From TrEMBL:
MF annotations from Gene Ontology: structural molecule activity
Secreted among keywords: yes
Upper taxonomic lineage: Bacteria, Bacillati, Bacillota, Bacilli, Bacillales
Gene designation: flgK
The protein, known as: Flagellar hook-associated protein 1
Domain Flagellar hook-associated protein FlgK helical: 103-386
Entry keywords, A to Z: Bacterial flagellum, Cell projection, Cilium, Flagellum, Secreted
Origin species: Savagea serpentis
Subcellular location: Bacterial flagellum; Secreted
GO BP: any one term: bacterial-type flagellum assembly
Length: 566
């Protein structure tokens, strides 16, 4: 026999369930503008019918429903779209960092423009041509020397600016690894909270959202593989559990439950380079996993003594790094060694690769071959009368080379005479300068040719030959002239810049498309929530009206029956 009060219980359950749905709708509306929030829904399910199943079950026609209940409150997500989003985030992170690095290099090279290296060289060649027409003009000599100084200073400026950007990239790598470690720490902390809540039968949806936001941020730096471990206990079937994160394509676990690793960038030493902020990337050091509690060490007084990881026992070299991601993009621009170098072993310059090392090496080669060709021709000429060999031998010998390194003093130049071929390997874009003897006495500029009488008045044949150096095809520059080689450098950089910008645009377009699809699933639509609010409100009202009807029925049974004739 069914209970007389059964209808009240079914209606009461309807009231409570619709009320929960209304509360969840209100929660969605409140978080409509919260970044990373996933809309939630109440999974309604009918309660067990009456009568139950068993030997003592009363025999009666039909199987009467007993109402509804909120089985769970679940967030609305699509794991496949999440994976797509993170894959596109990898690509966009790489090409954004790559494009930014190339743009900064283009700003330094500043070609074509009225203030770049090409303009400085054009003015230098023009000044030498002017000098060839009037070699006795002190003003023309001073202009030619000053224009040579301007060329050297342009090379110096470009080298120092590129190195400064490279130092910034070095800092950016270190900041990125610190950010990665912070994200890993937060994910491990959220895993701990989730593992404490899920076994009690609850769904910590807001903690899931916070964790997914962190995984999204992590995927911008490097591609990751995500898996889940159930929490056990009374955890619901739809509970996600603790997350385990690996670097994609490797067995390196970054987070496993409440344990996480620490990562740091390791740099290779370079012979002769004391600037540690420009040493190439060697490997990504990975520590052993520690729990978020174990990594904090305290002394007897309870004072925190150590909150870092010191046991780096493995490393991921450049070849093992994932091919995409913001971190990889920064490293590719900054510079790296393809083959991991053992600690204490110096990396060879020819093994250092990367956007900035490659272009700075080309710039050094340009400065070196330019100085070598110009000095060779300059040494074939003669200065003005007052500085010829028989009058001032030291100045005559010391001024043979027009371009020197900043480290080479006047005394050393006088002692060594002209530079030897092996000496030119020390000339770089960063240290090239005009011989100080010539800067101090412009008459030492060798404008006269040697096939004339020494110091002959009006002879400017060598100045013309110096100007013609611009057209010489130099073996050290791949058979190109100085101008052609620099144009090739600028053109190559332009092509790389276009490719990076195009790939960045494509990645951003794909990212926007995936973001839109993702938002269509997980984001809060206020129109939809308003519709749900009205729907749940009407259901709540109907349950309340049903309870009133049952109450009136019970009132008739209790107060109206058994009083026949009264």
């Amino acid at each position: 026999m069914r209970s007389t009060f059964m209808g009240l219980e079914a209606s009461k359950r309807g009231l409570f369930t619709q009320q929960s749905a209304l509360y969840t709708t209100g929660h969605n509306i409140s978080n409509a503008n919260t970044p990373g929030y996933s809309r939630q829904r109440v999974n309604m399910q009918p309660t067990a019918g009456y009568p139950g199943i068993g030997l003592n079950t009363p025999q009666m026609p039909g199987f009467i429903g007993t109402g509804v209940e909120a089985g769970s409150v679940q967030r609305v997500r699509d794991a496949f779209i999440d994976k797509q989003y993170r894959q596109e985030s990898n690509k966009l992170g790489y090409w954004e960092s790559r494009s930014k690095a190339i743009e900064q290099m283009e700003d330094v090279l500043n070609e074509p423009s009225e203030f770049g290296l090409q303009r400085s060289m054009s003015l230098f060649w023009q000044s030498l041509q002017d000098l060839s027409r009037d070699p006795e003009n002190g003003g023309a000599r001073a202009v030619a020397v000053d224009r040579g100084v301007a060329v050297a200073e342009s090379l110096n400026y470009m080298d120092s600016s590129l190195k400064e950007i490279q130092r910034n990239l070095h800092n950016e790598i270190n900041v990125s690894t610190k950010e990665i470690n912070s994200i890993l720490d937060q994910i491990a902390g959220l895993n701990k909270q989730i593992k404490e809540i899920e076994p009690n039968g609850y769904m910590p949806n807001d903690l899931y959202d916070a964790r997914d936001v962190l995984i999204d941020e992590l995927s911008e730096y490097m591609p990751v593989e995500v898996s889940y471990t159930p929490s056990g206990g009374k955890a619901l079937d739809i509970a996600e559990g603790a997350v385990t994160i690996k670097i994609a394509g490797s067995n390196v676990e970054l987070v496993n439950g409440v344990e996480r690793v620490n990562v740091e960038a390791e740099y290779a030493k370079v012979k002769g380079n004391e600037d540690v902020n420009t040493h190439p990337f060697n490997a990504l050091k990975v520590s052993d996993k520690k729990s978020i509690d174990e990594r904090f060490e305290y002394d007897k007084a309870g004072k925190l003594t150590n909150a870092t990881f010191n046991d780096f026992k493995s490393g991921i070299d450049y070849k093992e790094l994932p091919k995409i991601g913001k971190l990889k993009g920064i490293i590719d621009s900054y510079g790296y060694v393809e083959e991991k170098v053992a600690i204490g072993v110096e990396a060879k310059l020819e093994n250092i690769k990367g956007l900035y090392p490659d272009h700075m090496r080309q710039l050094d080669q340009l400065a070196r071959e330019f100085a070598k060709a110009f000095n060779k021709q300059h040494g074939n000429g003669y200065p003005k009368n007052q500085a010829v060999e028989n009058k001032d031998k030291d100045k005559f010998e010391g001024s043979k080379d027009f371009f020197l390194t900043k480290e080479l003093s006047e005394k050393q130049q006088k002692e060594t005479g002209s530079l030897k071929d092996d000496d030119y390997k020390n000339i770089t874009a960063g240290n090239i300068t005009v011989n100080k003897l010539i800067q101090d006495d412009v008459s030492l500029l060798r404008a006269a040719s040697e096939n004339k009488n020494d110091g002959e008045e009006g002879n400017g044949a060598n100045a013309k030959a110096l100007s013609d150096v611009q057209h010489k095809l130099l073996p050290g520059l791949d058979g190109s002239s100085v101008q052609m080689y620099f144009e090739g450098m600028s053109g190559e950089l332009g092509v790389k810049g276009q490719q990076a910008a195009r790939n960045e645009f494509n990645a951003a377009t794909m990212m926007e498309s995936v973001t839109f699809r993702r938002a269509s699933v997980m984001s809060v639509s206020l129109d939809e929530e308003m519709t749900d609010m009205i729907r749940f409100q009407q259901a709540y009202n109907a349950s309340a009206r049903m309870m009133t009807a049952v109450d009136e029925t019970l009132d008739k049974i209790i107060n109206g029956m058994g009083r026949v004739g009264l």
